[in-house]
Amino acid sequence: MTALFALATSLLWGLADFGGGLLTRRMPALTVVVVSQTVAVVVLGAIVVATGGWTEAGPRLWYAVAAGAVGPVAMLCFYKALALGPMGVVSPLGSLGVLVPVSIGLLLGDRPGVLQFAGIGVAIVGVLLAGGPELRGAPVQRQAVVYTLIAAFGFGSVMALIAEASTTLTGLFLALFVQRVTNVVVGGGALYASVRRGGRALPEEGGLRAITAALPALAFVGLADVAANGTYSIAAQMGPVTVAAVLANLYPVVTALAARGVLKERLRAVQAAGAGLALVGTVLLATG
Fold first, then answer.
1. Distances from the Cα of 229 to the Cαs of 123, 161, 164, 165, 196, in angstroms?
2. N or C: at which end does the chain have fewer Cβ atoms within 10 angstroms?
């Protein structure tokens, strides 16, 4: 079941990243973050009320607050990177964040078997190759890489924190709600500061009407992202964090394939080989 929930996480994150990257090409990244996470807050708030999740409040929620503070920074950097560079290149580099929870898992005593260790190595190499080794080039490409690496560390930190934020399903709903409320507060503050400095909160074309028209897509991005956090937390609690983290971080392959199917971004031979290695790594992790 750990593998199943972790793979569901990779699918949800991959689709959310693809949608977020597309939206950021048409409107400010901070606006995408704030609006999409606000939708998630409303939905999660209703779930918490319906399930009585508030009774699970406790010290562990500070992990959710920390995850919520780091999350908007990581998402902002990642969406900017996706808007600057090919999604099939940026997304795999973002998966380097897997090193954070994997390292923590090993320090806390996770000891995967030989096949699983092999699967971890194969999957990480595969995900990196799936983006293609295009780290040299124009200044815009270098800027995208810097944004992506910052985002990767942030995403890895969020994964480690949210896995510690609850021990029950209703507690998980509450933790995700607290995380998203913090997302909105931090992201909203950054958006306000950006506007005060002369930045834009609304798209140049269409303004508020453009955001209203894109609301279904923004809702999908926010809800897919929060669902991915939830499935990852379950996966990390059911099995070794090292295995859950690596399988969850296969999402760049999903993003790359979505970019190939929708945007017609061509996969180079090395990218196709990387996707194949990621699949082999998945099999080793699931069966090891």
1. 20, 10, 12, 11, 32
2. N
Mean pLDDT of 62-74: 90
| Tokens (6 digits) for 94 | 């973002």
Q: What is the pTM of this model?
A: 0.77
C-alpha atoms less than 13 angstroms from C-alpha of 102 in its C-beta half-sphere:
20
Q: How far apart are CA 91 and CA 16, in angstroms?
A: 11
Comparing 160 with 279, the larger pLDDT belongs to 160
Is there a contact between 155 and 51 (Cβ–Cβ < 8 Å)? no
- By C-alpha distance, which of 29, 38, 21 is closest to 86? 21
Q: How many CA atoms, within 13 angstroms, populate the side-chain half-sphere of residue 18?
A: 21
- Where do we find the tokens 């399903």? 169
Task: Please give the share of the chain, as a percent, with pLDDT higher than 70.
Answer: 83
CA–CA separation, 87 and 57 (whole Å): 38
Give the Cα separation of 240 and 234 in Å (integer).
11
CB neighbours of 243 closer than 8 A, spacing ≥ 6?
2, 3, 6, 112, 116, 119, 120, 285
Check residue 88 and give its pLDDT.
59
Contact (Cβ atoms closer than 8 angstroms) between residue 230 and residue 176: yes
Q: What is the CA radius of gyration of the chain?
A: 18
Q: Share the mean pLDDT of the chain.
A: 81
